[in-house]
Design a protein that fits this description.
The chain is α+β, with helices and mostly antiparallel strands. It has 11 helices and 7 strands. The protein folds into 2 domains: 74 residues, no CATH class; 171 residues, 3-Layer(aba) Sandwich (YojJ-like (1). Helices cover 52% and strands 12% of the residues. Helix 2 runs antiparallel to helix 3 and helix 6 crosses helix 8. It is elongated and about 70 Å long.
C-alpha cells in the first residue's frame, strides 16, 4: 500500500472545516503583516518547528515530550507578546465597525481636510490621531485635556510654531478633540528609514499599538502622510486622504467636501496662489526617506 492510499478524501464537513481554518489563518496573518509581531511570530514558529523536528529525528524522547507540553505555556506567552495585535483585532470586530457612521463623523472628515489643507499650505508640522475602537486614554492622560469641538482653527492654532502644545500630537474621538501635546510611542522597527522624523515614527508606533488613524504633516515640506495598522503612506494628496478617511470613518461614503475641495483647488490655481505640489502615492514607504 502506497502512502497516497492512506490519504482519506474529506467529506463536506471536512471541506468546511478546512475552509474555516484557512480563513482564520489568513485573517490572523493579515493582522500581523507589516508589524513588529510578524517578525516575532515567524521567529518563534521557525524555532519551535526546528526543535520539534530535531528532537523527533534524533529520537530525543524526553525533549520531544517537553516541547509538546510546552505548547500550553507558549499560548499564554503569545497572548502577552501579541497583546496589541489581539486588542486591535477584537476592536475591529466591535460594534463601532459594524455600525454605520453618522453625520458627526462626516463633519469631522470635512474639518480634518480643511485643517490639513491649511497646515500644508503654511508648512506647519502636525500629528493628528483619530481614535477608533481601541481607547487611547493612556496617551490622553499624558497630554493636556481639552475636550473641545473639533474645528480647523483649533487644530491649526495648536500646531502653530512656538505654541505650548505644538510638539506633541492631538487625539480626536468622534467630533471632539480630547487632548493635545500627547506623546505617542515611537516605532522601533529596524527596517524603517533613518530619514523618518519623530512625528512619522510616532505615527507608525501608535498605529502599531492601536487601530487609530494618524495623519502627519511634514514641517519641512508640507507633505501629508497617513499611518494605519502599522503602515505609513507618504506624500498623499488631498483626494487620496479624503477617500481614505471616508472609507474608514464613513464606511466608504464620501463627504460633501469632495466637490468643494476640488473647486477650491481650481480657484487657487486661477488666482495663482502657491500650493505645495501633490506627491504620488509611494505605497507602504517604511523604508523610504
Amino acid at each position: 500500500m502506497t502512502p497516497f492510499n492512506r490519504i482519506e478524501i474529506p467529506g463536506i464537513n471536512g471541506v468546511l472545516e478546512i475552509a474555516v481554518l484557512a480563513v482564520a489563518i489568513y485573517y490572523i496573518l493579515s493582522l500581523f503583516r507589516g508589524t513588529r509581531g510578524a517578525q516575532v511570530l515567524s521567529g518563534l514558529a521557525i524555532l519551535y518547528a526546528a526543535l520539534l523536528s530535531l528532537t523527533y529525528f534524533f529520537e530525543f524522547d524526553a525533549l520531544h515530550w517537553l516541547l509538546q507540553r510546552f505548547t500550553v505555556y507558549l499560548s499564554v506567552a503569545l497572548l502577552i507578546i501579541f497583546q496589541p495585535e489581539i486588542r486591535r483585532a477584537l476592536a475591529e470586530l466591535g460594534p463601532r465597525h459594524l455600525l454605520t457612521s453618522g453625520s458627526g463623523e462626516r463633519t469631522v472628515v470635512e474639518t480634518l481636510m480643511t485643517a490639513v489643507q491649511r497646515l500644508t499650505e503654511n508648512k506647519i508640522g502636525a500629528l493628528i490621531a483619530i481614535e477608533r475602537g481601541v481607547s487611547m486614554a493612556p496617551y490622553q492622560e499624558a497630554g493636556t485635556t481639552l475636550d473641545s469641538r473639533v474645528t480647523p482653527e483649533l487644530i491649526v492654532s495648536l500646531f502653530f510654531p512656538n505654541s505650548p502644545l505644538h510638539d506633541g500630537g492631538v487625539i480626536i474621538r468622534g467630533d471632539r478633540l480630547l487632548a493635545a501635546g500627547c506623546l505617542f510611542p515611537l516605532s522601533q522597527r529596524p527596517e524603517l528609514s533613518r530619514a523618518l522624523g519623530t512625528r512619522h515614527r510616532a505615527a507608525i508606533g501608535l498605529s502599531e499599538e492601536s487601530d487609530a488613524i494618524v495623519i502627519v504633516v511634514s514641517e519641512e515640506t508640507g507633505a501629508v502622510s497617513a499611518a494605519y495598522k502599522g503602515r505609513l503612506r507618504r506624500g498623499i494628496d488631498s483626494d487620496v486622504l479624503e477617500r481614505f478617511l471616508s472609507k474608514q470613518l464613513l464606511g466608504g461614503r464620501k463627504s460633501s467636501s469632495v466637490s468643494s475641495s476640488r473647486i477650491r483647488r481650481w480657484l487657487d490655481w486661477a488666482r495663482g496662489r502657491p500650493r505645495v505640489a501633490a506627491h504620488a502615492i509611494k505605497g507602504d514607504a517604511h523604508g523610504a526617506g
